[in-house]
Specification:
The complex is a heterodimer. Chain A is mostly beta strands. Helices cover about 0% and strands about 50% of the residues of chain A. Chain B contains no helices and eleven strands. In chain B, strands 2, 4, 5, 6, 9, 10 and 11 form a seven-stranded mixed sheet that branches. In chain B, β9 and β10 form a beta hairpin. The chains are: A mainly beta, B mainly beta.
Amino acid sequence: QQQVKQSPQSLIVQKGGISIINCAYENTAFDYFPWYQQFPGKGPALLIAIRPDVSEKKEGRFTISFNKSAKQFSLHIMDSQPGDSATYFCAAVNTGTASKLTFGTGTRLQVTL
Amino acid sequence: NAGVTQTPKFRVLKTGQSMTLLCAQDMNHEYMYWYRQDPGMGLRLIHYSVGEGTTAKGEVPDGYNVSRLKKQNFLLGLESAAPSQTSVYFCASRGAAGELFFGEGSRLTVL
């Protein structure tokens, strides 16, 4: 059972454009929603995370938008750069349960010149 | 400050062979995890540990065993490797805020 659904599977954006990746979850007990960035040959690295008590969190060019009632959250990358080309994973966890993250299936982002 | 270190980084096995993947973390984290990553399927949890001497099953535990004899180490074993276990394996430990720190992965091919 896929508890976190992520879309699109792949995304091509021009340099300077906005990249948007969407995730939806089912388990209302989730209380921490991180995004991970993974470059080829490397492990995933935490990019940005949000808790459900806020609707938006911004760190530099990266913003998470969170809609608790719709059980959806999204990652926006403003002014996308070629160096942002990577695979992005959303995840969700109930931090009261050994913090077992459930990951989305990933989005491969390519930022073209 | 190495973070999470996985060894080996690459391994090729024949069907039926056994092997152990080693994960070491130097951040004094209690919780550690083993994931496998396959194309189009994201990261799936194999086993995890909430502290030294404890282990628990994750989403896809069959064919794997783990041990956490020391707090800093988490071992993943394959007793009889199968081609379906060809994958990239990631170890992670959990920080105080709930964030996971991942190793760089161990790429396993089972022929």
